[in-house]
Amino acid sequence: MTSPSKLPEGKWPWSIVPSRAFGDKRLKDADRRVLGAMCAFVNRAGVCWPAMETMRLISGHKTEKSIFDAVQRLKAAGYVRQLRPKDYQETASGWKTNRYQVLWLGDEAKPSREDIASADRIRLATDPEPIDEVKGGLGEDETSLALSRSLALSLASAYATAVERTTGQFKRADQELGAANRLANKGFSAQQVQQATQEVARAALARRAGVPALADVERHLIVETTPS
């Protein structure tokens, strides 16, 4: 289990969890831990979307796939509602990821657009993009594909966040998915990508070079992790 001293900086030190979940025999302890991690970010309407890496750190799970699987079980048991972008968007563009609503009683009304907007302020500033998944029923192949996409987007978003924090320049995460996929396949975490991006970006600033691409960060990570 992750100790409190290792939780993400800036995290609220409490979580409001549906009390009905504790005695529900349909849930695993792993599911309740993920539910608790989600509830640490909910607004008054229960809306949240913390990043998978953040949920992994808080819940103490070893892999992001464990988080993904637990969210599916929580949805099936009626503790989490997936919010559909089309119910809240006026245009085709908008959410690139799914939003969720925690259900304390199980029969709560869907949140308003204002509730959706206010939940974004509860996410950690260091969070990459939130959970991404394919809509509808997920078979084994679809689940693997959704998890792969989610991991790649998480790494690309970690890169974009680190670039903006270090250089002040905005980078679109969706334009870096090629390198992000390669990094995900090599087992790199969002935290590793974020730290490496900061190092590479600072070095680029020092020599007055341009903003590094994620491919530059990828090369740096490979050099740093390759045994000499």
Word description of this protein:
By secondary structure, the chain is mainly α. The chain has two domains: 1-128, Arc Repressor Mutant, subunit A, CATH 1.10.10; 132-228, no CATH class. The protein is built from eight helices and three strands. It has helices at 29-39, 52-59, 64-76, 113-119, 140-167, 177-185, 190-206, 214-225; strands at residues 47-48, 80-83, 99-102. The chain has a three-stranded antiparallel β-sheet. The chain is elongated, with a radius of gyration of 18 Å. Mean pLDDT is 78; it is low at 1-5 and 128-146.
CATH level-two architecture of the largest domain:
Orthogonal Bundle
How far apart the termini lie comes to 33 Å
CATH topology-level fold name of the largest domain: Arc Repressor Mutant, subunit A
Q: Give the count of structural domains.
A: 2
Uncertain regions spanning at least 5 consecutive residues: 1-5, 128-146
How many strands appear in the DSSP assignment?
A: 3
Q: State the share of residues found in helices, binned by percent.
A: 40-55%
Compressed to H and E, one letter per element, the order equals HEHHEEHHHHH
Query: Structural class per helix/strand content?
Result: mainly alpha
Question: How are the SSEs placed, and which strands pair?
Answer:
Elements: H1 29-39, E1 47-48, H2 52-59, H3 64-76, E2 80-83, E3 99-102, H4 113-119, H5 140-167, H6 177-185, H7 190-206, H8 214-225
Antiparallel strand pairs: 1-3, 2-3
Short summary:
With 228 residues, the protein is mainly alpha-helical. 46% of the residues lie in helices and 4% in strands.
